[in-house]
Amino acid sequence: MFIFRYIKTLINIYLLYIQPILGMFLIGIGLWGFYAPDEGTCTNLNIELCAVSAIDVLKPAIFVFLGIITVAGWYFTELQPKLRGGQVYEGKTGVKPEDFVK
Question: Where are the membrane-spanning stretches (predicted)?
């Protein structure tokens, strides 16, 4: 029984603290990849004349995208319910079972 509480505590710590840090790290690495010049691809003195391959643009973009998805997922699944005090929105529809009976 104690092990289950310990595992639940570790999962809560991951979801509340480590997941947003991981997302911000991915965003930072992606932005660094966009703006840091790569010595292997740039041999000219002028940075505008350097050839850039598609993978050099896609790799940082994927890191930024995954970071944004991680932080947004953390916000909507963990932080927002905590800020609302644990209240979960239950959607109410106007459709009743009697409406389907002819």
Answer: 12-37, 57-76
